[in-house]
Amino acid sequence: MFLAANLPETIPLFPLPRALLLPRARLPLHIFEPRYLAMLEDAMATNHRLIGMVQPGSGPKDGENSLHDIGCAGRLTGFSETEDGRYMITLSGVSRFRITAQIDGFCPYIKASVDWSPFTADLGSTEEDPGFDRDGFMQTLARYFDARDLSTDWDSLTEADDELLINSLSMLCPFGIEDKQALLESPSLGDRRETLTTLIEYAMLRSPGKDVMQ
In the record, which residues are listed under signal peptide (predicted)? Predict the structure, then answer.
């Protein structure tokens, strides 16, 4: 459990297209590139063990690595090493942040100064969505699974509380980078649910394809 005063001013960043992390959710990752292996080792040496997940931007920006301004930091809570030196890790979402500056230096990965203050509510308890029509949403979701030929653990989704359901689907559904960013930046769980519903309904209007939940 983090307090706002305990959050660091700088964190390492892991830009990974369409890999979305949200507060109080968990994201499994496979780490194998040398620069991110170095990032992982450095993060493990800190007290906070935070890594910031961000979406890449659409192009170069003032000579810096092009990244979206808002990401979400996760604490390293799961770790295992494969025989060939790669790592399977789990990040548990702590809080969103806004990048204020990328830090120059000889580090092989990106580090940034970040501002946590716009997202203090992320450190609170499980968020609720009073306006959630769960039955209607689940019917729409079933049609979406059929239309896109998606497979998932339906029993787990049915049993999940509202926040876990909405956030898990936001993270797992095969949306594009900008769509994932819109879900991340949603001010509240209700806003995220509305954005998610819109994306699902739009996806069903397009030609059905063969997708796999991430």
Answer: none
